[in-house]
Design goal:
Distance between the termini of chain B: 17 Å
Chains: A alpha+beta (755), B alpha+beta (86), C alpha/beta (225)
Distance between the termini of chain C: 22 Å
Number of domains of chain C: 1
Order of helices and strands of chain C: EHEEHEHEEEEHEEEH
Order of helices and strands of chain B: EHEHE
Helix content of chain B: 25-40%
Shape of chain C: globular
Number of helices of chain B: 2
Strand order of the largest sheet of chain C: 2-1-3-4-11-10-9-6-7
CATH class of chain C: Alpha Beta
Bound molecules: adenosine-5'-diphosphate, magnesium ion
CATH architecture of chain C: 3-Layer(aba) Sandwich
Shape of chain B: elongated
CATH class of the domain at 7-20 and 46-85 in chain B: Alpha Beta
Number of strands of chain C: 11
Largest sheet of chain B: 3 strands, antiparallel
Strand content of chain C: 25-35%
Strand content of chain B: 35-45%
CATH superfamily of chain C: Class I glutamine amidotransferase (GATase) domain
Oligomer: heterotetramer
CATH superfamily of the domain at 7-20 and 46-85 in chain B: Phosphoribosylformylglycinamidine synthase subunit PurS
Largest sheet of chain C: 9 strands, mixed
Chain lengths: 755, 86, 225, 86
């Protein structure tokens, strides 16, 4: 390595002090003139190249939440009071007490843009990143989920992107030994060129294992461990190189990051063993902004300083500059703070797991983040200025011009199926649309069995995993989001996303406890998008308060748009619930003939943004279904009691496609037909998407007790018929065999994507 | 494979681009070291396809296979390929 | 006396915990074995569990085969120690030449995770003695490289010697030669199985409990054939 | 990668043995047909390794890599390999 040359060319703190006029490529690094000036003011001089690199990544939208932070505060400000929250917003992931000395942590995060550029690696590294967030809390990652949205199913680009994304999630998650317990798959033209790839990870720990990202204790060592640092994800830094050295010096930089799930698996086991041995004072994952982020956040959280020798960082590419090392987003790395006396034991455990580990610096009492490069000082900043004092913008927001017209164009003029035969055709059309077709083509690529704790996974409403074998303690998780509802009304749409995820968790018999969210939106510089964003955040925060479930963490993804066209506002909401005994969890399929079928909740004519309007008529307009949070809460309480008392055999929530689709799904999954009669307008009962509804199969003999429970809980219950028979028979309207339903449902995704 | 007629065999080598992280090659290199092949300083692992075509081995056959490689056999974002006659 | 069943953890092993649980449920005593150590701790049988040892880089099982513990396991297996390789374990046994043939990419070229029905074709091995010949069981298949291949002469020999232990029924999910789901060595003490019996030991977390008898089999004293 | 000294690059091609059924190659061949490359009559898919060695590219280097290929890079039961200088 040409040490002298590298050191000679580097921009030092001393040099910066005496060359205030040197032009710096702040704009190419994504900083505004105002932000650049602010950096100069904070430092009292111009930044060095390395400092500029740090601020540019730490103050990016992605890391600083500069457009969203002012609004995200509502999640904390309006959060319902709860004793269950051991760590909340602001940590790598929120931590929730679930009893028996266990706590769980979970978070959802986006990897949208990288997954469009290179679907396989983009999605794979998305899983890797969120798993490290969970690991950084001291938890063992125990399950993953994925919420996916693509352009039209038949579009050539979807054929490129979808199989790659699913393959990447499968590759990375399976190789880590994390069961995939659920997720989402949606198609809409608005996601062409902007697929949404949101990955969720769930972790579990004993209370005492909780770790925080903090660098306390002067003299403690800073250890970087995991993969080597390479020139990944440093597009911006090459600007610095060419500005400093007149170009031509920097080697070709990769356009994508490649994940190494094997290293991540070793990193997980290694971290858990280090944590169990009590060898870590602080722990942080390296994600976006890499070493810049890890060092400045660790030091800022502790209010300490840190001295880092950048030339100690093991490199995959020796031509990397100091700024590039600071910005590199190389995967599968963690940073720990370790007492000097523990370093050798720490290293021994890393060696046993074949995880490279290097001491790169020390905690200091200076309150400064000081970075050196071959003996020269290249960074000297107050870490909190990078980590916590980024710009905060109140961006202008305006209700979009076409919003009233959109809301005025309701679905009431759409032609409705009138006869039994037409109702039957409508059901088949919905079931055989890519939007509602069987997801097995995707979910069969995911291992849901590994670890032996998965009680429910796809196609059930919620994923359920056991935490504790003796007691049966476990958790349920579901994610939901409906871009069409949010496009029509982002405030209500975000609440409906929460309501649906909450309902899915309740359908398993679990008690909903906490919320994570991934807010996928267009450009915050577009006032219409900003309006959608603020409406959604406000709606979600309000609904969380009403339902009594706090937001514990999440992620914002802006700039999901092609040119001027933004995606539908798409907040994806994950709800976590707890089950005292997973042996009482409810599946979503009908397996026992003779069970009574009961519809819970009440149905109104609600077709705005519905699957029927979208799939049959290609129509989007009007208003989404009414949000009924009190009814959701009552429903969840009834379900929880009924599951505990063993009154139910199955429960399936009603959402896209209404009762008709729910019936078909529950019948197909369990291999049983059903006979039902509809007390009212068949079309409305079958296809409306009113919320706060669920379909349940009552355990034979428990009908009376269940009816009493519903009555006491204020939940309307309508007996529709019974489970059993060769197909779905709707009295007086139509019947359709399971075979015909299965064929319509199951061949769709294989035919599209098995090429 | 084919009944009569001319058969041409074209080789397509697909390798990870040099600037792209290759954890697989690194793992193989580490395994070499452990097995006592200490002189191995690096390994990159790629794919090799032998494509059999009906018809003569002319420029148009090569061009077609190049098209095929770009579309199916290699991932243009992370891999590079070479096409040649066997 | 409870049988002690060693379960080897390689870097990247994933189903070692599940295998241990299955052994316990079957009445045995699981003994963790570490890839980097020598010696088999005097166990009565060994399971090589599923997972992605060494990331499945190069070829599945190719790097794990050279782990220090294999230097003791290979001769012990040849001398009659009951060894069950599940999924990645099966791949390792093939790479170590304790079993013939190899496992290659699924014919559909995608990872498959699903419940499969398997017919027990040989109930005389150390691990399948708890089944009836011809019995059909539901297990979990989850693999990307599960297609069994071998030279035609090898396949003929496996068939004629009764060394095909299990075959897929009701469809061949991955393009395995002769629908092979599992095979054994000549002595019947070494068995490789692509589907996972350890994920079929409890209806709560799997398709049922059909897989449990594999572990009860290994837990019994090895049977001379 | 290495500090000074000579570096030799050796190529190891590993292909499935002809008598071994190659479902993966067949799947690629079918995909070719579907994509409109009807002239493709067969595909076999194997691996290509680029092995970097410290030291000169002499016979002994080739012999060592041949050893490495036989032991690690190829599975002799199902695969065959060739070793050559780059
Ligand atoms: N939409 C959101 N809702 C709630 N919390 C959020 C949201 N977006 C980000 N956060 C919180 O802000 C903090 C920083 O987020 P992020 O940068 O994604 O974490 P990390 O630095 O671990 O990648 C985290 O605690 C995260 O949970
Ligand atoms: Mg983090």
């Amino acid at each position: 390595m040409s040490t002298a040359a590298a050191a000679g060319a580097v921009d030092t703190v001393a040099a910066a002090a005496i060359t205030p006029e040197r032009p710096q490529p702040f704009a190419a690094l994504g900083l505004t003139a105002g932000e650049y000036t602010r950096i100069r003011t904070l430092l009292g001089r111009r930044p060095t190249d390395c400092e500029l690199a740090i601020y540019s990544v730490m103050w990016s939208e992605h890391c600083s939440y500069k457009s969203s932070r002012a609004h995200l505060r509502q999640f904390a400000d309006k959060a319902p009071r709860t004793d269950a929250l051991l760590a909340g917003i602001g940590e790598n992931a929120g931590v929730v007490d679930v009893g028996h000395g266990y706590a769980v942590t979970f978070k959802i995060e986006s990897h949208n843009h990288p997954s469009y550029v290179e679907p396989f690696q983009g999605a794979a590294t998305g899983v890797g990143g969120i798993v490290r967030d969970i690991l950084a809390m001291g938890a063992r990652p125990i399950a993953v989920m994925d919420a996916l949205r693509f352009g039209p199913a038949a579009a050539p680009d979807t054929a490129r992107v979808l199989p790659g994304v699913v393959g990447g999630i499968s590759f990375y998650g399976n190789c880590l030994g994390l069961p995939n317990i659920g997720g989402e798959l949606a198609f809409d033209p608005c996601y062409s060129g902007n697929p949404l790839v949101n990955a969720l990870c769930l972790g579990v720990m004993r209370h005492e294992d909780l770790r925080r990202a903090t660098a306390t204790g002067e003299g403690n060592k800073v250890v970087l461990f995991g993969s080597g640092t390479g020139p990944d994800g440093i597009g911006g830094a090459s600007v610095l190189a060419s500005a400093s050295f007149g170009g031509g010096e920097s080697a070709k930089r990769p356009s994508v990051q490649v994940g190494d799930p094997f290293m991540e698996k070793l990193l997980i086991e290694c971290c858990l063993e280090l944590n169990a041995a009590g060898l870590m004072v602080g722990l942080q994952d390296l994600g976006a902004a890499g070493i810049s982020c890890a060092t400045s956040e660790l030091a800022a959280h502790a209010g300490t300083g840190m001295a880092v020798r950048l030339d100690e960082v093991p490199l995959r590419d020796p031509t990397m500059s100091a700024a590039e090392i600071l910005m590199s987003e190389s995967q599968e790395r963690m940073m720990a703070v370790v007492k000097p006396g523990d370093v050798s034991e720490f290293m021994a455990i890393c060696e046993r797991w074949e995880v490279p580990a290097t001491v790169v610096g020390e905690v200091t009492g200076t309150g400064r983040l000081e970075v050196s490069w071959h003996g020269e000082q290249v960074v000297d900043i107050a870490p909190e200025t990078a980590a916590d004092q980024g710009p905060v913008y109140e961006r202008p927001a305006r209700r979009p011009a076409g919003q009233d017209r959109l809301n005025g164009d309701g679905p009431q003029h759409l032609t409705r199926p009138a006869t039994g035969a037409e109702l039957r055709d409508t059901l088949l059309a919905l079931l055989s649309s890519p939007e509602l077709a069987d997801r097995a083509w995707v979910t069969e690529q995911y291992d849901c069995y590994v670890r032996g704790e998965t009680v429910l996974a796809a196609p059930h409403d919620a994923g359920v995993v056991r935490l504790h074998e003796d007691s049966g303690l476990g958790v349920a998780l579901a994610t939901d989001g409906n871009g069409r509802y949010c496009r029509l009304d982002p405030y209500a749409g975000a609440q409906l996303a929460l309501a649906e995820a909450y309902r899915n968790v309740a359908a398993a018999g679990a008690r909903p406890l906490a919320v994570t969210n991934c807010l996928n939106f267009g450009s915050p510089e577009d006032p219409s998008v900003m309006w959608q964003f603020i409406e959604s955040v406000t709606g979600l925060a309000d609904a969380c308060a009403t339902l009594g479930v706090p937001v514990t963490g999440g992620n914002v993804s802006f700039y999901n748009q092609t040119g001027e066209r933004a995606i539908h506002p798409t907040p994806v909401v994950g709800v976590l619930g707890v089950l005292a005994d997973v042996r009482r969890a409810l599946p979503s399929r009908f397996t026992r003939p003779g069970a009574a079928l009961v519809l819970l909740g009440s149905t109104a004519q609600e077709f705005g943004g519905s699957a029927w309007a979208h799939i049959v008529h290609g129509h989007l307009g009007g208003h989404p279904p009414t949000v009924r949070l009190a009814a959701e809460r009552a429903l969840a309480q009834v379900l929880g009691s009924a599951a505990w008392d063993g009154l139910l055999e199955a429960a399936h929530d009603l959402s896209d496609g209404g009762l008709a689709v729910a019936l078909a799904e529950a019948c197909l999954a369990g291999g049983q037909g059903c006979r039902v009669s509809l007390p009212g307008d068949p079309f409305t009962l079958l296809f409306s998407e009113s919320g706060a509804r669920m379909l349940v199969a009552v355990a034979p003999g428990a009908e009376g007790a269940f009816a009493a429970l519903c009555e006491a809980g204020g939940v309307p219950a309508t007996t529709l018929g019974t489970v059993g028979g060769p197909g779905i028979e709707v009295t007086g309207e139509f019947s359709v065999s399971l075979g015909e339903l299965a064929e319509a449902h199951r061949e769709v995704l294989p035919a599209l994507f098995s090429g | 494979m084919t009944e009569g007629g001319q058969v041409t065999r074209i080789i397509v080598d697909v390798m990870p681009k040099p600037e792209i992280h290759d954890p697989q090659g690194q793992a193989v290199a580490r395994a070499c070291q452990r097995l006592g092949f200490g002189e191995v300083t690096g390994v990159r692992q790629g794919k090799r396809f032998e494509v059999e075509l009906a018809g003569p081995a002319d420029d148009s056959a090569l061009a077609r296979v190049r098209e095929l490689a770009a579309e199916l056999l290699a991932n243009p974002v992370t891999e590079q390929f070479t096409v040649r006659e066997d | 006396m409870t049988a002690r069943v060693g379960i080897v953890t390689f870097p990247g092993s994933l189903d070692d915990g599940d295998a241990a649980r299955a052994v316990r449920r079957a009445g045995g005593h699981p003994v963790p074995l570490w890839h980097g150590e020598r010696g088999l701790a005097g166990v009565d049988a060994v399971i090589l569990p599923g997972g992605f040892s060494y990331g499945d880089y190069l070829r599945c099982g190719a790097i794990a085969r050279f782990a220090p513990i294999m230097a003791d396991l290979i001769p012990a297996a040849r001398a009659g120690l009951p060894v069950l390789g599940i999924c990645n374990g099966f791949q390792i046994l093939c790479e170590a030449h304790l079993l013939p043939g190899a496992l290659t990419r699924n014919s559909g070229r995608r990872f498959i995770s699903r419940v499969v029905r398997v017919r027990i074709a040989n109930a005389g091995t150390a691990w399948t003695a708890g089944y009836e010949r011809g019995q059909e069981v539901a297990l979990v298949l989850k693999s990307g490289e599960g297609a069994y291949v071998a030279a035609p002469a090898t396949l003929d020999a496996l068939e004629s010697e009764g060394r095909i232990v299990a075959t897929y029924t009701g469809g061949n999910p991955n393009g395995s030669a002769r629908a092979i789901a599992g095979i054994c060595n000549e002595a019947g003490n070494v068995v490789g199985l692509m589907p996972h019996p350890e994920h079929a030991i409890d209806p709560l977390t799997g398709p049922g409990a059909d897989g449990l008898a594999f572990f009860a089999g290994g837990v019994r004293a090895p049977v001379a054939r």
